[in-house]
Specification:
Distance between the termini: 91 Å
Shape: elongated
Helix content: 25-40%
Structural class: alpha+beta
Number of helices: 27
Strand content: 15-25%
């Protein structure tokens, strides 16, 4: 070879390269072809010059021209040139790229071929991911089909999810997930919708193959997470001969209720196979004595437009003590979550949304609970839900598109459940410090006062008064969450080490909103995830030790609002059922035939918890009998509250047939309906297209025509089944029967924050 033909060549480097690639004899042709492409692309040589270079090298060595010798010299020249021009790191990257392309083809064949054994797919995936990631990646075209096949095979086959995830979740990401999954080989299944949303949100924000946003890199993380394949749960059902559960969903509501009461006991006596128990034991060993949560992740959960919010159980476990004790508690928790799939709420929800025939399966997520130990308590500083679209616009300055945060101190259960006597902080991200309350007294009244945390001593999830918790186990970042009340004033602490007397504390989160990265970070997070989803999203999160933990992500269900609602004028007082002036979004509900009214004063006088639960049962019975009718449900305080003294403790299956839910608070009752926006209960109403509104009859400009509701014939007494015993509390008014030729029509104008319920002629004859 002459110097003018080639750059300086290194036989030593060429020899090293040959030793490196000789380990892959089947790939040598592809590697040499790649070497040539790289050299041409870098202008080291032109493709048409290579035969001449090889001929001169052969002549210089006195080697006769034969096909075999030419082939040998061509390979040698390419190896020498490639090894001499590129750095060792570049050489390794290109060699590994050829290997990745080869394993990629094998992986694609395995995962796309019907009836391929799970161990074959797993082996092919591991072989691909065992190749160092390096700096060179297979092309988007090569990867996309395999990503889609793997996502569908292992995580979720919901097409909207796949359409987003294929752009962000890589083959290596799926491998990492499966390394933390129990049962995906021996008990193949999927990881379900909740897992899918959490995985894709994490990879949108923290990708492994592209540059990360520095703020996301610094502040965003996810808790340590493991998964249990749906195949493990399906095997449990079949192994224990629970075949009847496959048709359980087709029974009527009462039969489902009755059977569900037996499920827990049946599951308690049933068993997982020994290999699964050993996997569970290994998981307990890996996690150690750290609180965990076992979360449902069914196939349908967190679907686009159908979130299944709160339909399945999540179980917190303190996870303390001996390994076998922790293992037994964990297995009980898994069984409890699985049993919740057969409850009336998810089944009625599926029935309402045309999903009853779908073969629903249950996978699970196991996560370390975010937070740290403070005395005997484990909890994070804050948690809640982020919304990229804010439908709770109580001030014209608020921009819907900037989003909303529903924020609580401690565990986020108080942010997603309807709790009694407590209020989360609702933060419009366009104006984070703006709030409806003005005076310190108002701010304290509508603040969170109780905290959910894990008591490591008792081993239970418990609710504790904030001031008691602050005295027993103060959080080191408490100054970010509280303000101090004194002498009729309320002020946020000026510095971290300032004394915080527990008796003066009020949860406002002022310093978190103004003196931390929280607000700009969550705004950027919401913008990024919504941009990737192409639609509004909501995300559950926790905040602790200056980190944002992503716990859940799904598309945000939004009620179909009318652009403009015009209230009627000139309506007679006698034809007006109610007037209201707050907490409204645009809605028009016409031709309501029945009004079901739970008298707030009578309910307040119900003497026992047992009878209050019977009121909730009766509401469910009325709801069942009015199926197919258009009816409004009106009652005290907080529908669905876990505190039955502040509202009727109903579930979705008890109210799913109503078109309007009204929450009534008389001034003398001493409680006010909380803003339900963002709770699981609220999401149910949105997805069922049920309008919800508060009513404060004693406020200026508001009224309720109770005489119409209380003095009209009570149709409850005609419904049988012992319902007449509650006729003093529940009034069912058949509007056209008591006012012939009229129905209830409800007009809610979110722009002016005015609403009206009026009686008038049928608006849509024959279309009820």
């Amino acid at each position: 070879m002459s110097a003018q033909d080639l750059p300086p060549l290194s036989p030593t480097k060429g020899h090293r390269l040959f030793k490196q690639i000789a380990r892959f004899p089947d790939l040598l042709p592809q590697m040499r072809s790649t070497f040539l492409d790289v050299l041409v692309e870098r202008s080291v040589l032109r493709r048409e010059d290579l035969p001449g270079i090889v001929s001169r090298a052969m002549a210089a060595d006195g080697v006769p021209e034969t096909d075999a010798s030419r082939a040998d010299y061509t390979e040698t020249v390419l190896d020498l040139m490639f090894a001499s021009i590129l750095t060792p790191e570049e050489v390794e990257n290109w060699v590994n790229l050829v290997r990745k392309r080869d394993r990629c083809q094998e992986l694609g064949r395995a995962v796309s071929t019907e009836h391929t054994k799970p161990e074959v797919i797993w082996k092919a995936l591991r072989e691909f991911c065992d190749i160092p990631k390096g700096e060179l990646y297979i092309s988007r075209e090569e990867a996309e089909g395999i990503r889609v096949a793997l996502l569908s095979h292992y995580i979720s086959s919901q097409l909207p999810f796949i359409g987003i995830a294929k752009n962000h979740v890589t083959i290596r990401d799926i491998d990492t997930v499966l390394e933390h999954t129990i049962g995906h080989v021996r008990y193949p299944g999927k990881l379900g919708g909740k897992s899918a949303g959490m995985i894709v949100a994490q990879k949108i924000l923290l990708p492994i193959l592209s540059e990360r946003d520095p703020d996301f890199e610094k502040y965003i993380t996810v808790p340590d997470t493991w998964y249990i394949s749906s195949g493990v749960m399906s095997d449990f059902i079949d192994r224990n001969h629970f075949y009847g559960f496959h048709t359980h969903k087709y029974r009527d509501r009462d039969a489902i209720d009755e059977e569900y009461q037996r499920v827990g006991g049946l599951f308690e006596k049933a068993s997982f196979p020994p290999d699964v128990v050993e996997d569970f034991r290994g998981l307990m060993r890996q996690i150690g004595e750290h609180p965990i949560i076992v979360r449902s992740s069914s196939y349908l959960e967190d679907s686009f437009g159908l979130a299944f919010s709160g339909k399945y159980q999540s179980i917190f476990l303190a996870n303390q003590g001996e390994e076998e004790t922790r293992l037994a508690a964990f297995i009980r928790g898994v069984k409890t979550v699985l049993a919740s799939m057969y409850g009336p709420d998810p089944i009625i929800y599926r029935r309402d949304h045309g999903l009853l025939d779908y073969n629903e399966r249950m996978a699970m997520i196991v996560q370390k609970v975010v937070g740290r130990r403070h005395g005997d308590w484990h909890f994070p500083l804050a948690a809640g839900v982020l919304y990229s679209n804010n439908s709770w616009v109580w001030n014209p300055r608020i921009r819907k598109q900037d989003g909303l945060v529903r924020l609580v101190f401690g565990l986020g259960t108080r942010a997603v459940d309807r709790v009694g006597g407590d209020y989360p902080r609702m933060i419009p991200l366009s104006h984070p410090t703006l709030r409806p309350e003005v005076t310190p007294e108002q701010i304290y009244k509508y603040s969170q006062k109780m905290v959910d945390a894990i008591n490591l001593g008792s081993g239970q999830l418990e609710t504790i008064d904030l001031r008691t918790l602050a005295a027993e186990a103060p959080h080191p970042d408490l100054y970010l969450a509280v303000s101090l009340t004194a002498d009729g004033e309320m002020k946020a602490p000026l510095f971290r080490t300032q004394e915080l007397p527990p008796s003066s504390l009020c949860l406002t989160f002022e310093n978190l909103l103004t003196k931390s990265a929280f607000v700009p970070l969550v705004k950027k997070v919401l913008a990024s995830v919504q941009g990737a989803y192409g639609r509004p999203v909501d995300m559950e999160f926790a905040w602790d030790d200056n980190k944002l933990y992503i716990l859940q992500c799904r598309s945000l269900s939004m009620r179909r609002e009318m652009e403009k609602v015009i209230l009627p004028v000139g309506v007679k007082d006698d034809d007006t059922l109610f007037l209201t002036q707050s907490g409204l979004s645009n809605a028009l509900i016409t031709d309501i035939e029945y009004v079901v009214y739970v008298d707030p004063r009578a309910y307040d006088q119900v003497p026992t918890a047992e009878k209050k639960l019977k009121v909730a049962w009766a509401v469910g019975q009325v709801n069942k009998r009015l199926a197919g009718k258009r009816y409004a449900l009106m009652g005290p305080g907080r529908w669905g509250s876990n505190d039955m003294n502040l509202g009727v403790r109903v579930s979705y299956a008890d109210i799913n047939n109503t078109r309007l839910l009204v929450e009534i608070a008389f001034a003398r009752d001493g409680y006010t309906p909380e803003v339900s926006y963002g709770t699981h209960f609220f999401q149910d109403l949105v997805e069922a297209d049920i309008a919800i509104m508060p009513l404060y009859p004693d406020n200026k400009g508001c009224r309720l025509n109770e005489e119409l509701l209380l003095k009209s014939h009570n149709s409850l007494v005609d419904m049988g089944n012992g319902l007449a015993d509650l006729a003093d509390v529940i009034h069912v008014v058949n509007v056209p029967a008591v006012r012939p030729g009229t129905y209830l029509h409800v007009f809610l104008d979110g722009d002016s924050q005015r609403g009206m319920g009026m009686l008038g002629p049928e608006a849509r004859p024959g279309q009820k």
